[in-house]
Specification:
Elements (H helix, E strand, L loop, with lengths): L8 H4 L13 H11 L3 E5 L5 E6 H9 L13 H7 L4 H4 L4 H4 L13 H11 L4
Antiparallel strand pairs: 1-2
């Protein structure tokens, strides 16, 4: 069996992604992410229309009113940073997905070449 090198988004994308919906609680989202060992998901409405994306980083950085930096987690103890901001871990799960999701979603077509996809992700500083 010969394997071909992936060339397009369709070659590496998940055809059945795990999804959240806007009215899902952040607590349920956290369970979903942990259960599936993932860090974020697309958010779709009851008609299956993409409305946003959400990750645990969205929830944490929104609560802290700080922008995400690649070294954010490595440079500090998250529990200490949260406490300094008056934000406790048990409150991270308060609210709903729609309160924290990113609404400006950048998408690609299945036949987007991987090099173009990688550049689009680099340029827009996204990783999913």
């Amino acid at each position: 069996m010969t394997h071909t090198k992936p060339r397009f988004a369709i070659d590496i994308m998940n055809p059945r992604p795990i999804m959240a919906h806007p009215g899902m609680t952040c607590e349920a989202l956290q369970d979903l992410l942990v259960e599936n060992r993932i860090s974020g998901v697309p958010v779709v409405d009851e008609d299956g229309v993409l409305r946003g994306v959400i990750s645990m980083t969205d929830i944490l950085t929104s609560g802290l009113n700080r922008s995400y930096l690649p070294t954010w987690f490595e440079d500090s103890r998250l529990d200490t940073m949260l406490a300094e901001e008056g934000f406790h871990l048990e409150t991270v799960t308060g609210g709903y997905v729609e309160d924290f999701m990113s609404r400006d979603v950048i998408t690609a077509f299945p036949l987007t070449p991987l090099a173009e996809l990688a550049e689009m992700m680099r340029k827009n500083r996204i990783h999913r």
